[in-house]
Amino acid sequence: MNWHGVKAIYRFEMARTFRTLMQSLASPVISTSLYFVVFGTAIGGRVGEIDGVSYGAFIIPGLIMLSLLSESISNASFGIYMPKWSGTIYEVLSAPVSYIEVLLGYVGAAATKSVLIGLLILGTARIFVPYEIAHPVWMTVFLLLTSITFSLFGFIIGLWADDFQKLQVIPLMVVTPLTFLGGAFYSIDMLSPTWQKIALFNPVVYLISGFRWSFYGISDVDVGISAAAIGGFLVVCLGAVWWIFKTGWKLKA
Amino acid sequence: MTQRPIIQIERLSKTYDGGFQALKSVDLEIREGEIFALLGPNGAGKSTLINIVCGIVTPTDGRVLADGHDIQKDFRAAREKIGLVPQELLTDAFETVWATTRFSRGLFGKKHDAAYLEEVLRDLSLWEKKDAKIMQLSGGMKRRVLIAKALSHEPRILFLDEPSAGVDVELRHGMWQMVRKLRDRGVTIILTTHYIEEAEEMADRIGVISEGRLVVVEDKDVLMKKLGKKQLELNLRAPLGAVPDALADLPLELTGDGKTLVYTFDTQTEETGIADLLRRLGDHGVDFTDLHSKESSLEEIFVRLIHESKRSEPEPAESTAPKGAR
User: Fold this and answer.
1) I need a surface site. Which of A48, A141, B218, B309 has the fewest CB within 10 A?
2) Is A45 on the interface with B (CB under 8 A)?
């Protein structure tokens, strides 16, 4: 293993994060705070409790997931897309690094950043609403798995995209709607039976449900299914990356 | 200089997805410690060749050994030995010179070594700029940053893809000096260029590549003799039916319906014979209105070399319109 190579890529990516501190860390925290103000405090007061949890506290896991998904994808996809776009990828391609090492560097850095953002939001939420975490270990597992999986997914998008529009289209057209409809702001139980069934086809439902369970012990679907769903998606992403690297698709002529 | 090949290229071919055949079964050996110039017009396959050896392009056929290591099967060992300076100024605009150089060293699997990196940057007159963002640097400095990156992991083989592209004359000479210094330290250097002048100035050996084929590989001195033809064209006042018998011993040719007399001479020799030619023309009453000399353009030379390599018999000198390349 070329650990120096992994470290170099990881450091490079983290440096990029801290260079754009406002954009990378402050902006998700500010936007999430706004959600808390609007939904948690202003509207939440009128909604009352869901499954015995105040609305403000109820939306915390969903909001963290919302940021985690979009930040993981955008950070990882930009991380690999930018060198492709600027041409500096030549150096990585000509270096004695294996694909696994490239992946560890880029996806590792993107996932690290997502976890940081997740924890920051968790801290910020404390200012607005009291909450407790019933299963901290599971909470950490979901946080890590989601960050890694969606960073991996973002990495694939970054490899696939050959213009800025493609880079944005999946996060904007697929991931954001699925997240909003995935129960970040409501429980699936609140939907009509037909919509409940449709919602079960939305993979984000399992993520948010599992993550919320780790906080409050309440969930829309069984936590085992949630864990299996995120694990399954991780395997799918790993398989896709393995295929991409094996064939050199979009990377090498 | 030892004669051990540090790079062995065997039957290397590359056909791109679009069907374009960039390399056609190229065989080449680069000797350790030499400066090798790959000379050829744009699109001849120079960059493809370099990019394959460096791992950026996958070959369709053939194999490459770098210091005895197969570049595909044993890519780590092979790539550790190689540094690449790309043709275009591909840099991370927001990074500092120091950070980007340090990144390159790590990427190539070497432990951070501040003292060595300082030495590299000082050698390239970049030390004062080490904390500057790359976007603040001039084009010439950016190219030196790319060289610093390529040298950051102490490679034994350095590829310079068109090192003079977009570099002014003064910087070009600085670049040449630096390349020689590297060679003196034992680094093998392979550069591509479409300037004959550059190949002549720098290289120990020259390979001429055209349309994906390696046409000639020769020691520079031998090749320069072949390439160094110059022509003197005389526009005659009255057309001639044939070259006068009395001048038959000279390398003369009639073109343009007998109105132009072309004299081909060797630039490598001290005595071009022009003074003698003009005197004898006067003696025999051959009057001319104008004269000018020109070097064969690179394209003409390539055409000639390709013909020569195909038939191994000399072609008559081409005399088409002069082109800018020299």
Assistant:
1) A48
2) no
Distance from the A114 Cα atom to the nearest Cα atom in chain B, whole angstroms: 22
- Mutate which of B58, B107, B145 to test chain A, going by most A C-beta atoms within 10 A? B107
Helix (H) or strand (E) segment spanning residue B14:
strand B5-15
H helices, E strands: number in chain B: 10, 14
Report d(CA A152, CA A73) in Å as an integer.
8
The 10s digit of each residue's pLDDT in B139-165 is 888 988 999 999 999 999 999 998 877
Phi, psi (degrees; rounded to nearest 5) at A222? -60, 140
- Hunting for tokens 């390696």 — which residue is that? B214
How close, in Å, is residue B208 to chain A by CA atoms?
Answer: 24
Contact: B107, A15; criterion CB under 8 Å? no
Q: Model confidence over B99-137: pLDDT tens digits?
A: 999 999 999 999 999 999 999 999 888 999 999 999 999
Which residue intervals of chain B are DSSP H helices? 46-54, 75-80, 97-107, 114-123, 139-151, 169-184, 196-202, 220-227, 274-283, 298-311
Instruction: Compute the Cα dihedral for A71, A72, A76, A79 and give only its sign.
Output: positive
User: Are A123 and B117 contacting, i.e. CB atoms less than 8 angstroms apart?
Assistant: no
- Tell me, rounded to whole angstroms, the distance of Cα B141 from its chain centroid: 22
Closest of B306, B305, B298 to residue B323, by C-alpha:
B298
Q: Does A246 touch chain B (CB under 8 A)?
A: no
* Cross-chain Cβ contact A96/B80 below 8 Å: yes
Q: What domains lie within chain B, and their CATH numbers?
A: 5-225 (3.40.50.300), 229-295 (3.30.70.1560)
Burial class of residue B100 in the structure, from the number of CB atoms within 10 Å of its CB (0-12 exposed, 13-18 middle, 19+ buried): buried
Task: Search chain B and give the residue with CA nearest A92.
Answer: B107
* Contact present, B108 and A96 (Cβ < 8 Å): yes
pTM listed for this prediction: 0.81
